[in-house]
């Protein structure tokens, strides 16, 4: 554990060093993200100038969904960025080196790149979450907050599992880095309260691609709208996804065929 | 004849290459459609109590999103990254002598590249429109359609020049991806791609008429929905022509500066 | 007991057929044909501790695939292998800490950063204690003479300097087994020699077991007493490099130089097969057993002989002929 923390620290140090030599790209990417974030925030805010309710949620509740989406999305972007590098790493042979080293290949593939700027981006998001949280029109108890954090953790585990599945697919099929984009695109439905979607869509994104479990369940728990069954579902999904993804990863690594030299 | 054939060959090769991006194109497109559907569903939820928002009825809002996205996929392109790649890897050297042959070459190549994405995008957009036929407002006033076609055509060319210009940033730095992403988002906002500009204070609407971006989304749909008249559209076309000339001039200026820098580095 | 043991090791790759042309790529959207390629088939060999063995073979012969299986990167399709008593593809940390892999075309250093950062990364990964890390690093840096470049970003280094840093990164944890895949590829002659000398010295001093693949005969000739020749996924030869010549080169070469007016083709043809001819210098190929007799006959003749040399056929030539015969 200590070893992995030290490896991670050195990797992050390297990532910062790399960033410094690509300053402009790093900064403009962050600005791009901020712009998109700001526009969507403005969009949601503006909508509530013309309506009181969005699928039974008020302004601050809707914003809380949006911010939670960003929290999880940016968290994954910051700490699991390695999965986006995998295809390049396979081509350049970095991945081969990683397999041959006494370091867990899964850890390496997920965390070999850490986006420091995304970690910085997390701060204003958390700040806004607290602000919007205080503006919520209902009483938030400590129990609600604990439940929120608990389900947030569950959601993050599922996100990690989804990343494991995508990198396993990349190892297997090589060309398939697009699965990560499929996940990214699916995530965007979590920006808004799930009740705006039809029952069919909600089913798909709860039980097939569990975006709603990842993003909406924590918020609902905070708002006191999550049933015990919902809580249980999240727990079961976390376990199934996590262990399923691990098993799939092991299979894929066994069938890894490296890039021709 | 030979010239046309040559250009067609460029187009065809680019087209084939694009097809091998099968999954990329498909996944990207699905993502876009997904995002669009999310927007539609969100508006459906907001309008569920009925009513009109800032002059938009539910059907008008749906039409805004559907038609706007269709127009947007028709006029957009990925020229910037092509240009910056050519600059970065030295392909440009073959075209060093005069600026315009490169511009022309790249435009034809781009027309080929967008054909696949174009076909995918247009067909899928039409399918979605077909799916929402019940809500989609049909307007077939011939004069309006003629003006619409003119605006879209000009917007297409404007977008090409804009992208080309943005692509030239690569003369000064190799770190262009972040810049492009940021510019794209700003463009999309001012084009009304996230939501109708009319929801914002009037100054934004004015800005979107005066800037070239709105003509790829917001303005043509406003025309289609009858929210602006044919006279305003005519004025818009004039603004577009003005922008075309201006962009062309700026491209010349930037190109000449960039080329000097490029030759200085001696790739 | 051998340090590396390989039994009937095989690897088959699966891949998809890609057809050129528009219609075909359109079809490819829906249906793809699966193909198989035999990269390594049932190879056997064993290597003792401290040996330096060369893998020789043309591109795609299966050299790299074999190394990747021994490093645990690839799972074999069949057969067994033991390195240091471990099955490589079980990827046990205990094994991984005892070997290193260097690929000439695929480096492990962080591109934008000074090599030192990558060294520290490996220190953490291999859990090398601080003191030992410092000692090993100093030793390697001095041996390779790269102290000044440790703080320069890798991308700004020459290919030769980069390879030296690759070597350091791979050797910091003092591996007992070292796999070197084309370590000199793309380097200029001087850099090639530097790397070669280092490998030779390192092998001698540390008794590290080394498997080396290379395109350059020079590498193999300089470094390896023993070679394993692979072509078309099979082992063609496994033994001493010197014996390779005896086994495969049935001929010797006689180089004869003449003075005065030189000679004509007719005058020399009877001594053997002419490989090269000019009036003042000829090269004749004769069967090994008859080389001495032929030389004596030439000297005894009327020809204006200036000098005569009996050479082994160049090893490159031998190897080239082996590969040609199997094609």
Q: Helix and strand layout, with pairings?
A:
The complex is a heterotrimer of chains A (261), B (267) and C (327).
Chain A: H1 2-21, H2 23-47, H3 59-79, H4 82-92, H5 94-100, H6 105-111, H7 116-135, H8 142-173, H9 178-187, H10 199-208, H11 211-222, H12 228-254
Chain B: H1 2-19, H2 22-46, H3 58-75, H4 79-89, H5 99-131, H6 142-167, H7 177-190, H8 202-210, H9 218-224, H10 230-265
Helix pairs in contact in B: 1-5, 2-3, 2-5, 3-5, 3-9, 4-6, 6-9, 6-10
Chain C: E1 4-16, H1 22-28, E2 34-47, E3 52-56, H2 63-70, E4 78-83, H3 93-96, E5 99-103, H4 115-125, H5 130-144, H6 159-171, E6 177-181, H7 189-206, E7 209-213, H8 217-223, E8 226-231, E9 234-240, H9 241-248, E10 251-258, H10 265-269, E11 273-278, E12 281-287, H11 291-300, E13 305-312, H12 315-326
Parallel strand pairs in C: 3-7, 3-8, 5-6, 6-7
Antiparallel strand pairs in C: 1-2, 1-4, 8-9, 10-12, 10-13, 11-12
Helix pairs in contact in C: 4-6
What's the overall geometry of chain C? Answer: globular
Measure the end-to-end span of chain B. 34 Å
Can you summarize the main beta sheet of chain B? none
Radius of gyration of chain C: 25 Å
Largest interface: A-B, 41 and 34 residues
- The level of helicity of chain C is 25-40%
Strand content of chain C: 25-35%
How many helices of chain C? The count is 12
Average pLDDT level of chain B: 84
Strand content of chain B: under 5%
Please state the structural category of chain C. alpha/beta
Number of strands of chain B: 0
Reported by name, the CATH topology of the largest domain in chain C is Rossmann fold
Note the run of SSEs of chain B as H and E.
Answer: HHHHHHHHHH
Percent helix of chain B, as a range, is: over 70%
Number of strands of chain C: 13
- The assigned CATH architecture of the largest domain in chain C is 3-Layer(aba) Sandwich
- Specify the biggest β-sheet of chain C: 6 strands, mixed
């Amino acid at each position: 554990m200590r070893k992995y923390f030290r490896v991670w620290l050195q990797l992050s140090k390297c990532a910062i060093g790399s960033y410094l030599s690509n300053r402009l790209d790093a900064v403009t990417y962050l600005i791009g993200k901020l712009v998109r974030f700001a526009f969507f925030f403005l969009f949601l805010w503006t909508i509530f100038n013309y309506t009181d309710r969005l699928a039974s949620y008020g302004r601050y509740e809707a914003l809380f969904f949006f911010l939670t989406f960003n929290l999880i999305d940016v968290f994954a972007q910051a700490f699991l960025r390695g999965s986006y590098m995998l295809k390049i790493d396979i081509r350049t042979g970095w991945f081969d080196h990683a397999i041959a080293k006494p370091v867990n290949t899964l850890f390496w593939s997920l965390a070999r790149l850490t986006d420091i700027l995304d970690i910085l981006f997390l701060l204003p998001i958390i700040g806004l979450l607290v602000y919007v949280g205080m503006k919520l029109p209902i009483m938030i108890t400590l129990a609600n907050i604990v439940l929120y954090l608990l389900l947030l953790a569950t959601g993050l585990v599922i996100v990690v599992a989804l990343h494991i599945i995508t990198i396993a697919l990349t190892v297997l099929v090589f060309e398939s880095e697009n699965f990560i984009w499929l996940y990214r695109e699916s995530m965007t439905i979590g920006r808004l309260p799930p009740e705006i979607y039809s029952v069919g869509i909600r089913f798909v994104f709860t039980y097939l691609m569990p975006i709603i479990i990842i993003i909406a369940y924590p918020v609902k728990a905070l708002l006191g709208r999550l049933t015990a069954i919902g809580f249980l579902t999240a727990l079961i999904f976390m376990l199934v996804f996590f262990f399923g993804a691990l098993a799939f990863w092991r299979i894929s690594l066994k069938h890894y065929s490296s890039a021709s030299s | 004849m030979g010239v046309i054939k040559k250009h067609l060959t460029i187009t065809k090769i680019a087209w084939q290459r694009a097809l091998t991006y099968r999954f990329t194109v498909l996944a990207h497109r699905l993502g876009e459609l997904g995002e669009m559907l999310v927007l539609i569903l969100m508006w459906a939820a907001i309008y569920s109590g009925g009513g009109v928002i800032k002059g938009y009825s539910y059907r008008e809002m749906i039409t805004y999103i559907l038609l706007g996205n269709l127009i947007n996929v028709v006029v957009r392109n990925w020229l910037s990254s092509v240009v910056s790649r050519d600059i970065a890897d030295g392909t440009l050297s073959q075209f060093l002598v005069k600026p315009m042959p490169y511009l022309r070459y790249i435009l034809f190549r781009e027309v080929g590249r967008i054909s696949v994405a174009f076909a995918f995008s247009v067909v899928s957009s039409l399918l979605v429109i077909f799916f929402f036929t019940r809500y989609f407002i049909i307007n077939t006033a011939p004069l309006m359609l003629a003006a619409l076609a003119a605006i879209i055509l000009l917007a297409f060319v404007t977008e090409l020049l804009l992208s080309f210009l943005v692509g030239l940033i690569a003369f000064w730095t190799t770190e262009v991806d972040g810049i492009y992403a940021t510019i794209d988002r700003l463009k999309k906002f001012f084009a009304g791609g996230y939501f109708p500009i009319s929801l914002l204070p009037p100054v934004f609407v004015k800005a979107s008429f005066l800037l070239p971006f709105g003509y790829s989304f917001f303005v043509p749909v406003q025309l289609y929905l009858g929210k602006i008249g044919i006279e305003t559209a005519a004025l818009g076309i004039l603004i577009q022509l003005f922008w075309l000339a201006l962009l062309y001039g700026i491209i010349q200026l930037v190109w000449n500066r960039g080329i000097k820098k490029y030759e200085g580095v001696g790739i | 007991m051998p340090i590396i043991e390989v039994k009937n090791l095989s690897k088959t790759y699966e891949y998809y057929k890609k057809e050129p042309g528009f219609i075909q790529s359109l079809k490819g959207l829906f249906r793809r044909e699966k193909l198989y390629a035999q990269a390594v088939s049932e190879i056997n060999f064993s290597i003792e501790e401290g040996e330096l063995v060369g893998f020789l073979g043309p591109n795609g012969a299966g050299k790299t695939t074999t190394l990747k299986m021994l490093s645990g990167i690839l799972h074999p399709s069949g057969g067994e292998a033991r390195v240091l008593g471990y099955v490589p593809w079980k990827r046990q940390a205990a094994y991984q800490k005892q070997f290193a892999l260097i690929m000439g075309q695929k480096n492990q250093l962080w591109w934008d950063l000074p090599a030192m950062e990558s060294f520290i990364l490996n220190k953490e990964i291999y859990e090398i204690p601080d003191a030992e890390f410092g000692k090993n690093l100093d030793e390697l840096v001095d041996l390779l003479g790269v102290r000044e470049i440790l703080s320069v970003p890798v991308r700004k280094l020459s290919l030769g300097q980069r390879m030296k840093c690759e070597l350091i990164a791979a050797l910091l944890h003092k591996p007992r087994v070292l796999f070197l895949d084309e370590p000199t590829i793309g380097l200029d002659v001087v850099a090639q020699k530097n790397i070669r000398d280092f490998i030779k010295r390192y092998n001698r001093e540390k008794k590290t077991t080394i498997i080396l693949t290379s395109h350059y005969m020079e590498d193999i000739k300089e470094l390896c007493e023993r070679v394993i020749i692979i072509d078309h996924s099979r082992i063609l030869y496994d033994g001493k490099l010197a014996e390779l010549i005896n086994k495969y080169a049935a001929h010797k070469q006689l180089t004869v130089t003449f003075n005065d007016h030189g000679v004509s083709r007719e005058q020399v043809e009877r001594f053997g097969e002419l490989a090269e001819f000019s009036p003042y210098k000829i090269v004749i190929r004769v069967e090994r057993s008859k080389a001495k007799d032929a030389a004596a006959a030439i000297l005894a003749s009327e020809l204006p002989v200036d000098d005569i040399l009996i050479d082994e056929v160049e090893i490159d030539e031998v190897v080239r002929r082996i590969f040609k015969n199997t094609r």
